[in-house]
Amino acid sequence: AAGPEGPIQVQRIDAASAAAERDRYALEQDLRGALANGEFELRYQPQIDAASGRVSGAEALLRWRHPERGMVSPTLFIPVLEEAGLIEEVGLWALNAACREARSWHRLGQGPLTVAVNVSAHQLDGADLHSRIKRTLERHSLRAGMLEIELTESAAAADVNRAERLFEGLRGLGIHIAIDDFGTGFSSLSALRVLAFDKIKIDRQFVTEVEARRDSQAICQSVIALARGLGIRVIAEGVEREEEYLWLRRHGCSEFQGYYFSPPLGAPDFQAFVRNPAALRDRLALDARHVQ
Ligand code: C2E
Ligand code: MG
Ligand code: MG
Ligand code: MG
Question: What is the pLDDT of residue 292?
Answer without folding.
Answer: 45
